[in-house]
Amino acid sequence: MPKSSEGTTKTVAAPPSEIKIKINGCWHNFEPERDISPTMTLSYLLREKLGFTGLKVSCDEGGCGACTVIMDGKSVLSCMILAVEANGHEILTIEGLAKDDPIVEAFAQQCEPGYGTALQCGICTPGFVMSTKALLDENPIPTMGEVKEALSGHICRCGCYAGIAQAVTHASEKIAKKGDAS
Amino acid sequence: MKQPYTPRPNSNRKFVGGYRPKIDAWEKARGKVEYVDDITIKSRFPGMLYAKVLRSPHAHARIRAIDVSRAEALPGVVCVMTYKDPEFTSLKPTNAGWTDGVDTVSYDKKMWNQFNDRRVLGDYACWVTDEVGAVVAAESEAIADEAIRLIKVDWEVLPFVLDPIEAMKPDAPVIHPDMTANNILPPEKMGGEDVFLDKGDVDTDFANAEVVIEATSTHHNATQASLDNWCCMVDWKDEKFTLYSNSYEADQTRMHISQMLDLPLHKVTVISSYVGGQFGRGDTGEQPFFLFTAILSKKTGRPVKFKHTRRESFHDSRQPTIYTGKVGAKKDGTITSLYFKSIGNTGAYADHSIFALKFAPLEISEVSFAHIPNVKLESYAVYTNKLPACMMRGVGNSQFNLIFGHVVDLLAEKLDMDPIDLCIKNFGHEWETLPDKSLTEVLRQGAEKIGWKEKRNKPGQGPVYDKTKKRGVGFSLHPAWHAEWQEVRRGHIPISITLNPDGTVILNAPTVETGTGSNTCNVLGCAESLSFLGVTPEKIHWNHLVNTDTSMKDCVQTDSAVSYLQSEVIATAVEDIKQEIFDRAEPVLKAKSADMDIVDGRVFVKKNPDQGLTVEELLFQGDLVPITITKSRLANPEKTGVPYFANFAEVEVDMETGKVDVLHLVVINDCGTVMFASGAEAQQVGGQVMGMGEALTEEIIYDEISGVPLNFNFIDYKIPTMADMPDIDPILLEVWKGAGEYGACGIGEGTLTCTPRAIMNGIYNAIGVRINDIPIKPEKVLRALGKV
Fold it and tell me: What is the ipTM for the molecules in this complex?
């Protein structure tokens, strides 16, 4: 553990006595130091401590998007957020999506001729799905420019961007249809 | 709205060739698929330790002395081992290129047996980040990392060399003196002499030819960049060895472990599940890290996990290659002589370097250049202190295509001929006469889709857009390798089909699923073959887990060929399944096998179709034992020629900034038979990310002063994102047909082999100046235009 250098006048906020994070609808309580060290990333907590392995850690430095989860409605890179920063916040991982989530369905079903599938090896897919969810929650009918803008923090090395873009469009249509039905 | 491909007339396929989701799409979209890092999380293996290895900070150095005492004293460190320990000194020298994955090989049968240039843990480092000197096992990754930092090393820093031309000079530092005194890998039996093909007499022909052109091209280091970082976990105790890994060669990995650690095969279990991207990375599958992880597990008696960080996963690369090409031709465009010479930057270890240099040019010479009387090929693989380099979605094909597509374009220009016509006139294959049907159709369709006639300018003479931009079109083509006859070296390819009493099917077609979609191809092939039973893809379960204890030998995802190889074997299993059903029906129907037939899942007596019952009824009447058929066979060696593929590109170059924008890409693959259309199109579209990345942005950059690689990360190693990619049109063709039921060929590698050259020829067409080393970054364009 790095020790703070002596003689600094920097004020450090007192560590919280308890860390509470709402994950996929359930509050989890953690004890600082015992459960969560000050340097622990949110991705580490979710994967290694809690077993939410749907999110993937590839670059671990904010360069690939594979670890994307939703925090308070916004997509975030969980490798770039400390676990303690999530104190009091609401996290949604891919495990928290409904079984019939229209975005998951659209990613799984994409096979429209000319675009390829929306996934091949699948390791980047949960990240793309979560960013798509954050996008469509905020902007249910995005333009293709907005889709590209929203998803360009993600790398798909299999290169399924065209299929993913189709999936996002289809997800948007599915959500609109569901809305009409209800 | 894009159009589906047009299947070959009268093919009458029910399932094969269809547009549909991948069989694992649902699980993957929900994040349910588990990769090795997920399977081996600590909560599942509570006693598990984490390994880390010391990595060289120097491009070339030897350890004089090492002090691990501070690392050993760190709380949480369980074991520190060094290169001096007998567990390591007793290991045979090895390399990471035992096999290209096509076949399983033993230590003595390694493809590159002459180049045992790697120690599993030695005292000698040949590139920055080389694994050397010491390994640590600790309770957490953070502790293991800290322990590595506490190791004190007295380095003897040696002079280094990064450039292969420099490395060939007499005064260059020698990297593996026991292999070669001048850094050039000596000729050996697999690759042959330095001049590895010398047909006719190129020198005389060049002297007499009506037209001669000469050119060079340079392909830089690019990396596979699979998001699934290299990872393994070994549990070795009580004489039983279990390895979980994301290597794509389970059977070969088992052989590697067995031979290196002297364990009988039945005591070694290798388990592979889904892998998050492959792209040739594992073609250097026999990695020393499996072995030091194993030794740490044995020493500690606990499971040990070794996971590369993303930076450490910059571990293999496409071999950088400098090509020279020379072509002699008649004025009518008939090519009479071809000469290609390559210098490959092998990097720190030989691995498959020679394969990357000699395989692709030799193969294309044997098939596409068979009509050309004079052909000479020459190459040199040179050690340097860069990261090792060999395969990446192909083996030397992209590098060769960079010069091949170049000389084609150059010669056509000199002859004032359309390069498409030049290709049709000259290239085909050895078993048929010119023009080649596959090649002609591939180019015709590509030209039509890109708008070749309308959009092609006199080089640099086209209109100006937005005041500063010029546009151009280019293409390149290549023969598709990996038709079935090219896969004989695999040996027997096994599968098994289990027909359950309720008519569902368990398909064991073992292969490590890396995203290629071959699993879906196999399920479709299985449904097609068993459609007489009323089997549909939804009724088939494909077993994704490869476990060498219980699985048959896995068919390795190399050569892009698994998409059809296993389906061909499945097709041959049908008669056996029918016979087994007839055997069981004989006492029930009181008829002879020969008098029975099965249609739509109903077995009946041919002469009296009413005398019959469904197969389900038959099996439920009996002992309920499923019918299991196991089948294996060699690939069909019948020489059936080669199909072609090509890429066309339309580009826009900003003459002020030097920035190149690709506007449109067309990818055309003659597949023989399309096994799974959505998967094939995903390969075609997806491959362009890697191809365009290599052409324009992807490059490993080294600090020339220190030899330190500067961009081993996804921020500075620039992989195209969704916003970077242009509109892509995938075109699937079924013109050529190989042997067997489907006569298909692999296309995965072939989707991007031509992309860089197509883009480069497009750039030339736009600006009228040739740039021949990739990636083509803006500064290279500006330099070529004389603006810097």
Answer: 0.97
